[in-house]
Amino acid sequence: MRVMGVDPGLTRCGFSVVETGSGRKVVALDVDVVRTPSTMPLPERLLAVWTAAEFWMDTHRPDVIAVERVFAQHNVSTAMGTAQAGGVVALAAARRGIDVHFHTPSEVKAAVTGNGNAGKAQVTAMITKILGLQKAPEPADAADALALAVCHSWRAPMIARMAEAERRAEAQKKVFEQRLAAQRRASGTRSASGTRSASGTRSAGASRTMTGGAR
C-alpha cells in the first residue's frame, strides 16, 4: 500500500509518500515541504498548495492519503489556514477517487513514539529511526508528514476491521428492522381479522334475537 502523508499548512505544507512492506516495515519514497509567503493573497496560497498536492498525487499515485486533523488553536488564523490547506488537499484527492483519512496529532504521536504527548523532537527522532533515514528530515513539517503516512500505514488494518464491523452492524440492523416491520404488519392483520370476526358474530346473534321476537 502506498500512503501519502500531508501535514497541512499555508506557510509550510509537508508532503510525503511511503510504501508498506511485510509486517510493520515502511519505506520512505519521497518527502518535501511546499512554502507560500504570507504576503501572497490567500486564494493564490491555496492554489499553490492544491497544485502541489495534484502534482504529488499524479506523480506517486498513492492508494490512500493521510491528513492531520485540525483542532482549535490559540491562533485562530493559523488554525483556519491549516484547515483550508487540508481542505484543498482533500478536494484534489476526491477528484481522483482517492480515500482520505484524518488523524489527530495525538494519534500520530502515539503511533510513532508510543506517547500521545510527545514533542516534535521525539517524533522526528523516531521517524528517522523507523524509516532508517541517514539524517533527520527537516523542517519539522517534513517529519510530521512522514509520521502521518507511517501512522496510517500501521493503523490501516485496524481501520479496515472497524469499517467492516460497522458495515456488518448496519446490515444486521437493517435485517432486524425489516423483521420487526414484518411482525408489526402481521400483528396488525391478525388484529383487524379478529375485529371483523367478532363484529360478524354479534350481528348474527342480534339477527336471530329479532327473528325470534317476531315469531
From TrEMBL:
It is found in: Cytoplasm. GO terms for biological process: DNA recombination; DNA repair. Its cofactor is Mg(2+). Keywords: Cytoplasm, DNA damage, DNA recombination, DNA repair, DNA-binding, Endonuclease, Hydrolase, Magnesium, Metal-binding, Nuclease. Residues 181-209 have a biased composition (Low complexity). It catalyses: Endonucleolytic cleavage at a junction such as a reciprocal single-stranded crossover between two homologous DNA duplexes (Holliday junction). GO terms for cellular component: cytoplasm; Holliday junction resolvase complex. Its EC number is 3.1.21.10. Mg(2+) 2 binds at E68. Binds 2 Mg(2+) ion per subunit. InterPro entries: RNaseH-like_sf, RNaseH_sf, X-over_junc_endoDNase_Mg_BS, X-over_junc_endoDNase_RuvC. The keyword Metal-binding applies. Pfam families: RuvC. Residues 181-215 are annotated as: Disordered. The active site is at D7, E68, D141. Mg(2+) 1 binds at D7, D141. One of its GO terms (molecular function) is DNA binding. The keyword rRNA-binding does not apply. Homodimer which binds Holliday junction (HJ) DNA. The HJ becomes 2-fold symmetrical on binding to RuvC with unstacked arms; it has a different conformation from HJ DNA in complex with RuvA. In the full resolvosome a probable DNA-RuvA(4)-RuvB(12)-RuvC(2) complex forms which resolves the HJ. The RuvA-RuvB-RuvC complex processes Holliday junction (HJ) DNA during genetic recombination and DNA repair. Endonuclease that resolves HJ intermediates. Cleaves cruciform DNA by making single-stranded nicks across the HJ at symmetrical positions within the homologous arms, yielding a 5'-phosphate and a 3'-hydroxyl group; requires a central core of homology in the junction. The consensus cleavage sequence is 5'-(A/T)TT(C/G)-3'. Cleavage occurs on the 3'-side of the TT dinucleotide at the point of strand exchange. Belongs to the RuvC family. PANTHER family: CROSSOVER JUNCTION ENDODEOXYRIBONUCLEASE RUVC. NCBIfam families: ruvC (TIGR00228). This is Crossover junction endodeoxyribonuclease RuvC. It comes from Tsukamurella paurometabola (strain ATCC 8368 / DSM 20162 / CCUG 35730 / CIP 100753 / JCM 10117 / KCTC 9821 / NBRC 16120 / NCIMB 702349 / NCTC 13040) (Corynebacterium paurometabolum). The gene is ruvC.
